[in-house]
Amino acid sequence: MALTLGIVTISAETLFGDRVVAKGKGIEVKFSQVEEAVIAFKASRVGAGERVSQELEQEAERTILERLVATQLLLQRATDADKKTGKAIGNKLIEESKSKVANELAFKRQLIVLGLTSAQFEAQIQEQSLVKAVIERELKPSHVITEEQVQKFYIDNPDAFQLPEQLRGSHILFSFKDPISKVDLSSEIVAMKKENAVKVLARAKGGEEFAKLAKEFSDDRSPDHPGGEYLFIRGQMPPEFDAAAFTLKPDQVSDLVMTRFGYHIIKLHERIAPKKSDLNGPMKEKIRDKLQQIAIQNDLPRLIESLKKDAQIIITLVEKK
Questions:
Q1: Which of 82, 140, 179, 283 is the most buried (most CB within 10 A)?
Q2: What pTM does this model have?
Q3: How far are the Cα atoms of 45, 54, 187 from residue 51, in angstroms, in the given order?
Q4: How far is CA 100 from CA 116, 141, 263, 277, in A?
Q5: Domain at 79, CATH number
Q6: How many CB atoms within 10 Å of residue 233?
Q7: Would you tell me how many other CB atoms lie within 10 Å of the CB of residue 107?
Q8: Residues 6+ apart with CB under 8 A from 163
Q9: Residue 83 to residue 26: CA distance in whole angstroms
Q10: 3-class DSSP assignment, residue 221
Q11: In a domain, 258, yes or no
Q12: Are 48 and 27 in contact (CB under 8 A)?
């Protein structure tokens, strides 16, 4: 329940005391913790244009409380090794999340939609990563995946290992964004880039070595793709890129292609026909990891119930009428 005073919304728990809604040995969850998570949940749904019904809010409240209890129970079991592992996982996830957006400002805008500050987001990621480390230490040893299980999954799920047609090709990118700040370039600079792209295109169509041109002019500086060479799968790149690339013949150079990323010049080296992935070492490890994660998730409720029983958890949350 919340009371609105002027323009400030104040929780009843703030005014009359923050009640405990779950407790046990070393465990205590207060209503404010549940309420904060529910507010963030509603903000993300509303931000996505969805309506949050009372039934959905109550379901979220129950789920969040169960998650908070489980989290505290698992955190109690964290060892020093778990904390070290969890921190490394968390740091990596935070960096990956930030790398997916144009800049820090765009990242913070996304968090606002989720109802989170940067500090709250990072704290959540670190906590979730530590919980993951504890779960894996607790349950992985009980779920060793055999060679026979890997083979069976590979045979029983042929569609999961069917590779679509691929293109081995290269591209030269003239980006619409500054390579360092990731900020959109001015229309004047974009126009200059287009002029330069037209000149480079003429040289590429004239037979100059494509990889050399890519190294000299392309804004795609990925160290994993020297000379701008990639394996392209239909749907992986923007539709304008696909439309041009998948109509090329081997050794053919495209015209100038514009996508949301910038201007591209594409050269096709070869088409690779659809085929089934081989069950090689890396593929076996991917399957093994997938099966192990499924087994761990299926076994997790049992572990949580056991921990709740040992901690003598009592739930006192009363749902809103």
A1: 82
A2: 0.70
A3: 7, 10, 39
A4: 17, 34, 21, 28
A5: 1.10.4030.10
A6: 14
A7: 16
A8: 274, 275, 276, 277
A9: 19
A10: coil
A11: yes
A12: no
Residues 100, 207, single domain; the answer is no
Cβ contacts of 33-38, under 8 Å, gap ≥ 24 = 33/68, 34/61, 34/64, 34/65, 34/68, 34/317, 35/11, 37/64, 37/68, 38/64
Q: Do the domain assignments include residue 158?
A: no
Q: H helices of 77-186, where?
A: 80-99, 104-113, 118-139, 147-156
Identify the residue whose tokens are 């400002």.
105
Condensed to tens digits (0 to 9), the pLDDT of residues 41-51 reads 888 788 778 88
CA distance 85 to 132: 9
The torsion of the CA quartet 125, 288, 153, 151, rounded to 10 degrees, works out to: 170
Q: Which residues in the chain belong to E strands, given as ranges?
A: 2-5, 8-11, 20-24, 27-30, 162-163, 166-175, 229-233, 257-259, 262-272, 275-276, 314-315
Range of the domain at 266: 165-273
Q: Tell whether 309 is covered by a domain.
A: yes
- Are 244 and 306 part of one and the same domain? no
Are 80 and 199 in the same domain?
Answer: no
- Are 124 and 41 part of one and the same domain? yes
**Residue 198 sits in the same domain as residue 247:** yes
Residues in a beta bridge with 9? 4
pLDDT for 289 beyond 90: yes
Q: How many domains does the chain have?
A: 2
Per-residue model confidence (pLDDT) at position 17: 59
Give SS3 for 268: strand
Separation of alpha carbons 156 and 142, rounded Å: 24
Q: Render pLDDT for 167-198 as a digit per residue (tens, 0 to 9).
A: 999 999 999 998 777 789 999 999 999 999 99
